[in-house]
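Continuing the series of single-chain predictions for the mutant panel. This is the parent chain; the variants come on the following pages.
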Amino acid sequence: MTTDGRIPASSASSVSSARGRPASPAASSISATALTKSYGDKAVLEGIDLEIPAGSVFALLGPNGAGKTTTVQILSTLIPADGGSARVAGHDVEREADAVRKAIGVTGQFSAVDNLLTAEENLMLMADLNHLRRREGRRRAEELLRRFDLTEASRKAVITFSGGMRRKLDLAMTLVGEPQVIFLDEPTTGLDPRSRRTMWEIIRSLVADHGVTIFLTTQYLEEADQLADRIAVLDGGRIVAEGTAEELKRYAPGGRIRLRFADAGRLAAAAALFEYATVDAEALWLEIPGDNSVVTVRAVLDALDNASVQAESLVVETAGLDDAFLQLTGEGAR
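Parent structure:
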């Protein structure tokens, strides 16, 4: 582990991908060195480094205002960096911006579809913008409508679509030009759980079936845990940790054992047995720091048995990515 908390690339290369694909020294699809960006006196990025293999999913996490969207905007050539350098799909984002734009797709937090057009018309418009011949554009539109399960709604105005349908169409429009790299800036914001999981399946298929590189920013830690091969945590303009989901979880304190009791008397008796336990008197829960090993759970139950205190239920909770996030950012880091 480096002094800034990041897991070195050399050690990470020997670890299997969090999604089950073995890590390999694949060519970098996105790389950045010492990127900086300020707005007036406010430094948003203070020298971040990235190295993202082709055909992988990379997630950038961070609190609101940490610089996630600014990073996406720089890498997708929407705004210039103040310092540092970056390459996307083999092209310098500053000197070869046109080549970068031809190789990427971008889906932002808010849908970019035209509400007054149909789904098919939106896709054909993107085909025209990508300079596809009419026949090729229609073929791509039909293919994408099938892939995103939008064929039946293809002739309906987008204004009638649900949020999930709009986000699927938005991503489909991004794919018209068959990009090598796709930037997804909080793509499932506002979606219900079912629509979010549908988007996850689509993202997985883009990588597995088409070898696309995905750069994902998200506020949903479960989303990063489910999708990303590697995750970086951005806070205060710097990347404070990077690794697989499992590697990042090691930054969090150990898990906890939660016991629920039938009444306040039993709760108080149990609380007296464990020095570092936390009591929720209203819910009658007792939370004890500890791991999920059989030895630890047995020790807790033995202590209760010896004191003749009976618990109603027991839940073992391991440290999750949300625990690691809280530990690495904001007040947790300080």
